[in-house]
Amino acid sequence: KKQVETIKNLPSDVWGGIYCGFFYVTDKKVMMVEATKKGDLKKAILNKEVDIGASSTLLFSIDAIKEIGLFDESFERHQDWEYLIRFFRKYKLFSLRDPLVKVYGPNMPNGKKAARVKEKYLSEFKKDIYEFGDETAREIIAKHWLEVAAAFAKEVKVRECIFYLKKSIIYRILPLKEYLNILILINKTLIKKIFFIINAFY
């Protein structure tokens, strides 16, 4: 209701949509994520600098939907990002800071699917990615390939993880904490498997 009331009072030829903050709920904790950014967020979406809550927070105007169209169903994942990139070619996105919805997670695909999805995503929007210059484009691509490495790390598929880790580094070396996350994922999965094996014997 707040989103509808807010977008009604905005210039429709500029602000074609609105999103809000959300509560991110996992089996271990609940985290509040505020929607602090607004405007043309295409770079922020591509570079994973803004979290929109997996499209659960998004509301678009009828005019924007008529002009942009619907989701591209050929995308197995990232349908929301794909839609938003097309959206930002025409409109800006407003925001309500307050968390108004709950988003449940995490929802990470297996490594093979993640690699396939990223290949399509990065290829489809290559022009949009390089619109922000070579340095930013390399950072964007590095982050996405690192995400694939993380998906394989969660499965403890070390060879595939290293392959995509190298692929990421070719484009840009990211902050150390990004790589530590991969080690944490591998360790967590290994510990779970060890406990599972031990319990099987008792």
User: What integer value in Å does the Rg equal?
Assistant: 19 Å
Rough shape?
globular
Q: From the structure provided, what is the oligomeric state, counting identical versus distinct chains? A: single chain
Strand residue percentage: 5-15%
Question: Tell me about the biggest sheet?
Answer: 4 strands, mixed
The helix tally amounts to: 9
N/C terminus separation: 54 Å
Average pLDDT rating: 89
Q: Name the helix and strand elements from N-terminus to C-terminus, one letter apiece.
A: HEEHEHHEHHHHH
Total DSSP E strands = 4
The secondary-structure class comes to alpha+beta
Helix content: 40-55%
Low-confidence stretches: none
Written overview of the protein:
The chain is α+β, with helices and mostly antiparallel strands and 202 residues long. The protein has 9 helices and 4 strands, in the order αββαβααβααααα. It has helices at 2-8, 42-46, 62-68, 79-88, 111-124, 126-130, 134-154, 158-171, 176-200, and strands spanning 15-25, 30-33, 59-60, 92-104. Strands 1, 2, 3 and 4 form a 4-stranded mixed beta sheet that branches. α5 (111-124) packs antiparallel against α7 (134-154), α7 runs antiparallel to α8 and α7 packs parallel to α9 (176-200). The model has no long low-confidence stretch (mean pLDDT 89).
